[in-house]
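Blinded run. Sample ID left blank on purpose so nobody reads anything into the name before looking at the predicted structure. Input follows.
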Amino acid sequence: MTAQLSKEKQTLLLFVVGLLAWLVPGAGHFVLKEKKRSLIIFTTIVITFCIGIYIGSIGVINLYGATPWYVIGAQIMNSPVVLALGRLNTGGAYPVYGRPNEIGQIYTSTAGLLNLLCIVNAVYLAHLRCTQPARG
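Blinded prediction complete.
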């Protein structure tokens, strides 16, 4: 950042960067003008999530029958799209059993946890840019 931001503006920037990074994987880095990193993050997380859906079907996203750590900690961290997909699976409309279910859950969980790491990284980069003095 070229000038020091006030405390309120810093907090707002950190919140916006974190929210955007959650809504669309890589968007937080994109806002920070890290375009290559943003593209890599988006591609990696979306492909990992899609592989999990492909292997286990949409049935691996079970917002009501799964353990809380899995739903909140892993799948919801992907993006709000998971909530929409979870609503489609309400009532067990797409049952999946056995190994495909387990493997699909592993892939979708991994994508969510990767996105969580990227959200934290984006917020940290934004914080560093707010607090470092401008170079001139």
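Unblinding after everyone has recorded impressions. Residues 98-131 form the longest helix (34 residues).
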